[in-house]
Design a protein that fits this description.
Length: about 120
């Protein structure tokens, strides 16, 4: 058997001790197990064929197309049901106001885009 001295950050040390305790083993046993598992699992990167990449793109596009967009009325009804929450305390009022402005701008352009159809 070999001996190894290892310096660990306190937080990592505590985390490893907790995990060893959960497994009902010593920290040494847990570390040997974890290192063995890590060292024995091969890290292999395999290339993906161009055909697979194209199929993934097609599948993704089909998925996106299958998602239904709500009508403005449905979106408004869903937003009306949402419980209002206060902005995070770290956000300054100016930033909140700018966000509200941008959201209202987006709403208006969405409404204009949907009335053109």
């Amino acid at each position: 058997m070999s001996r190894l001295t290892l310096r660990l950050p306190e937080t990592l040390h505590r985390q490893l001790e907790d995990q060893a305790r959960q497994e009902n083993v010593s920290l040494n046993q847990y570390l040997v197990y974890a290192l063995t598992r890590y060292a024995s699992s091969p890290y292999i990167v395999t290339p993906v064929s161009e055909q697979d990449v194209q199929q993934q793109r097609v599948d993704y596009q089909l998925f996106r197309n299958s998602l239904r967009r709500g009508t403005p009325e449905e979106i408004r009804a869903a937003l009306d049901e949402a419980e209002p929450i206060a902005p995070e305390p770290d956000l300054d009022p100016e930033l909140v106001e700018r966000l509200r402005y941008r959201i209202n701008e987006a709403k208006e352009s969405y409404q204009v885009a949907n009335t053109d159809k």
